Amino acid sequence: MNLETVSPAQFGASLRGFGLNLLVRDVSAEAAFLAEVFGMVPHRLSEDFAIMDYHGHLIQLHADHTYGAHPLLGLVPESPPRGAGASLHLFDSDPDHAAARAEGAGGHVLQAPANKPHGLRETCILCENGYAWAASRPLTDDERKDV
Q1: What separation in angstroms does the CA of 4 have from each of 30, 57, 101?
Q2: Which pLDDT score, from 0 to 100, does residue 8 have?
Q3: Which of 3, 20, 27, 89 has its CA 20 to 30 A from that of 83?
Q4: How far is it, in rounded angstroms, from Cα 128 to Cα 145?
């Protein structure tokens, strides 16, 4: 499926399994942040919508105004954090690289990259829309010895 040319109806009908849709104030800004910090690839980018590809996994960004008749919109706070309590994990991301790029891309590093006892090196970054993005990769054998 060509994500640039697929119709909305065909795209919607193709979705299976688990999906993630995020409401954001500015689709272009959030897409740029996700591309810069995590290497996601945007498709169908407009002021209303974007499909973000992360290693074959798709995330949809929707502008607030596109949810006008959706019951969720009334629950979304005007100021961050929007995603309080949710942590969006990107397991194939370099946490050091992501943390180094976060501030310049409009994000805030909540937790610096660290080696964790559960076998991952990870960082936690808050985007301008208030979502917590955790970038991680498996620890190397040498790093595992230090935990």
Answers
A1: 18, 16, 27
A2: 85
A3: 3
A4: 36
Q: Note the pLDDT of residue 119.
A: 93
Q: What was the pLDDT predicted at 94?
A: 96
Cα(126)–Cα(103) distance, integer angstroms: 10
Report, as ranges of residue numbers, the positions in the chain whose pLDDT lies below 50: none
| Pairs from 81-85 (Cβ < 8 Å, separation ≥ 24) | 81/126, 81/130, 81/131, 81/132, 82/23, 82/129, 82/130, 82/131, 83/22, 83/129, 83/130, 83/131, 83/132, 84/130
Sheet holding 108-115: strands in order across? 87-90, 132-138, 120-126, 108-115
How many alpha carbons lie under 13 Å from residue 82 in its C-beta half-sphere?
21
86: left (phi over 0), alpha (psi -120 to 50) or beta: beta
pLDDT score at 145: 83
pLDDT score for 5: 92
Collapsing DSSP to helix, strand or coil, 96 comes out as helix
